[in-house]
Amino acid sequence: MKNIYTLVDRLIQLILTFLVSTATTEQAFLAIKIVKTISRNRMEDDFLANYLIVYIVKEIAKRFTIDMIINYFYSIKE
């Protein structure tokens, strides 16, 4: 059937791919809406991008402690 209906098969593949890519984009814009409030509206672009990365992967970021971060920066200081 795939050989007979190649255009239909391709259309279905594109639709399924589109749904995933749209969901990822919507999640990113939702994160921007949450992070970029009126009080944070004056953020520089680099800081906002870094802050959004931490916000989006917050499950990974929760594993780090303040002591781990301090020790890391102390080790690269030398």
Rg, nearest Å: 21 Å
Give helix and strand order, one letter per element, not per position: HHHH
Unreliable stretches covering 5 or more consecutive residues: none
How much strand content do the residues show?
A: under 5%
Secondary structure tally: strands: 0
Largest sheet: none
Mean pLDDT: 75
Bulk shape: elongated
N- to C-terminal separation?
A: 65 Å
Structural class: mainly alpha
Count of discrete alpha- or pi-helical segments spanning 4 or more residues: 4
Residue share in helix: over 70%
Task: Describe what this molecule looks like in 3D.
By secondary structure, the chain is mostly helical. Helix content is 74%, strand content 0%. It has four helices and no strands. It has helices at 6-35, 45-56, 58-61, 66-77. The longest helix has 30 residues, at 6-35. The radius of gyration is 21 Å and the shape is elongated.
